[in-house]
């Protein structure tokens, strides 16, 4: 007697067809590796955005240590160079030195008392303006400094404090432009803002119906918090004009912040560095076939840990399309988003908003306890949720817009040196067999 007949719909029966496979996204781009459900997998956020398949080019990469997260990010940047694109990296752990060396550039090392300074108040452009300093200049600088001082104070600035800060920024911005004398916009520095807060101009005090002493009192706490970047233990990184001679036209710019990785102020310092990079990006000329810059913020949890800077980061993320920048935030686990604040708090909402504003999510293996958090955040199906804890090294679940892919990242033989972070553990490239696969599918 034969086996009983099996009934199935044509939807299920279609899976039995031997040549059926995911068609891919239909765009050229960086070859990432092999789609485990069929074919090679390439990805380009700019091309996908132009075709209307994505509404923003931002990406969040999540993965436990040792699962291949860093290897993917570094080779993704390396391969983007073939398309004429540049990459800018905020590197809090000093792990991008080998990638920079392969590109023939040196990381910009930031450390207290060091020789390199970046001015986070730099303008995006120095083009002449009939009105001198612009409202946009003042707004960007005020929002950044309000975020930094609020993070240090552990609270949102009070209205008198925010007014004092706005007036101080306006005053020093006008002075900087006046000093240049040719109508082009110039950048003030943090020490000038601190001085203007502690010793406000009489005209600034009159503008808000108070005297100099009253306005100084309003801004005193803000001034003292910002002063730490100027005269405290964090001085020597962001307390003066940007050091001349930095090669900003390089295909890769790495800001190495490993000297302050264990500082409680790491998030504040990373925010200063990111703000400087973004201003430099906006002011640069990126027209032509190589249009598009990838900006990586590694260990993004450090920025999300403070409410003020989380607000600033999310607002910057939302401007990615206008700036032609694909932001990449790198996290260890999705609970880093929940850990940013109490459940239901604005801080937790901002952290989750960062994920919502990143339409590409690359998720490497997560611990079983993380899957429950990941399911609603990523909109995982039951099958995807069951699969997530069991992904092998170098394999990630890609959520690109409304589509899902299971992708095995592949390395070419020559890429092992730029991605290895296990050398200190004595493993070396040979400890990771998946690394020796060819870059092709």
Helicity, as a percent range = 40-55%
Work out the helix count. 18
**DSSP, total strands:** 11
Largest sheet: 11 strands, mixed
Oligomer: single chain
CATH class of the largest domain: Alpha Beta
CATH architecture of the largest domain: 3-Layer(aba) Sandwich
The CATH topology name of the largest domain reads Rossmann fold
C-alpha termini separation:
45 Å
CATH superfamily of the largest domain: P-loop containing nucleotide triphosphate hydrolases
Rounded average pLDDT: 80
Order of helices and strands: HEEHEHEHEHHHHHEHEHHHEHHEHHEEH
From the helix content, strand content and strand pairing, which structural class follows? alpha/beta
Which geometry do the CA atoms define? elongated
Commentary on this structure:
The protein has 2 domains: about 25-50 and about 60-110 and about 255-435, Rossmann fold, CATH 3.40.50; about 135-230, no CATH class. Helix content is about 40%, strand content about 15%. The protein is built from 18 helices and 11 strands. α5 (about 135-155) packs across α6, α5 (about 135-155) runs antiparallel to α10 (about 265-285) and α5 packs antiparallel against α12 (about 305-320). The model is unreliable at about 125-130, about 285-290 and about 420-440 (pLDDT under 50).
């Amino acid at each position: 007697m034969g086996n009983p007949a099996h009934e199935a719909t044509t939807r299920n029966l279609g899976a039995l067809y031997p040549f059926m496979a995911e068609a891919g996204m239909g765009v050229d781009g960086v070859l990432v590796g092999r789609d485990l459900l069929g074919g090679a997998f390439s990805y380009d956020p700019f091309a996908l955005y132009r075709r209307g398949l994505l509404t923003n080019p931002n990406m969040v990469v999540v993965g436990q240590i040792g699962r291949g997260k860093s290897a993917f990010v570094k080779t993704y940047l390396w391969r983007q160079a073939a398309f004429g694109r540049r990459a800018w990296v905020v590197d809090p752990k000093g792990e991008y030195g080998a990638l920079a060396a392969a590109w023939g550039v040196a990381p910009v090392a930031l450390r207290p008392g060091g020789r390199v300074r970046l001015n986070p108040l730099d303008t995006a452009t120095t083009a002449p303006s009939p009105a001198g300093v612009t409202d946009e200049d003042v707004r960007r600088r005020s929002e950044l400094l309000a975020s930094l001082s609020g993070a240090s104070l552990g609270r949102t600035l009070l209205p008198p404090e925010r007014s004092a800060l706005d007036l101080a920024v306006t005053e020093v911005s006008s002075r900087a432009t006046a000093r240049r004398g040719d109508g082009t916009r110039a950048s003030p520095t943090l020490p000038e803002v601190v001085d203007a807060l502690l010793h406000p101009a009489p005209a600034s005090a009159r503008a808000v119906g108070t005297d100099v002493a009253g306005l100084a009192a309003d801004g005193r706490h803000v001034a003292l918090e910002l002063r730490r970047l100027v005269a405290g233990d964090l001085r020597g990184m962001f307390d003066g004009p940007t050091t001349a001679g930095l090669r900003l036209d390089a295909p890769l710019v790495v800001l190495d912040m490993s000297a302050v990785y264990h500082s409680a102020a790491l998030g504040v310092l990373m925010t200063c560095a990111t703000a400087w990079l973004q201003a430099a990006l906006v002011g640069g000329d990126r027209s032509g076939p190589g249009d598009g810059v990838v900006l990586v913020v590694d260990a993004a949890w450090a920025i999300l840990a403070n409410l003020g800077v989380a607000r600033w980061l999310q607002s910057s993320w939302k401007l990615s399309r206008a700036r032609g920048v694909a932001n990449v935030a790198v996290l260890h686990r999705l609970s880093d988003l929940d850990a940013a604040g109490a459940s239901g708090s604005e801080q937790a909402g901002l952290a989750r908003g960062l994920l919502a504003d990143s339409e590409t999510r690359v998720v490497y293996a997560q611990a079983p306890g993380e899957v429950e958090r990941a399911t609603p955040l990523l909109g995982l199906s039951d099958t995807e949720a069951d699969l997530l804890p069991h992904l092998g090294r170098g394999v990630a679940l890609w959520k690109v817009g409304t589509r899902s892919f299971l992708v095995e990242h592949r390395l070419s033989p020559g890429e092992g040196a730029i991605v290895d972070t296990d050398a200190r553990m004595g493993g070396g490239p040979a400890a990771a067999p998946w690394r020796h696969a060819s870059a092709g599918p």
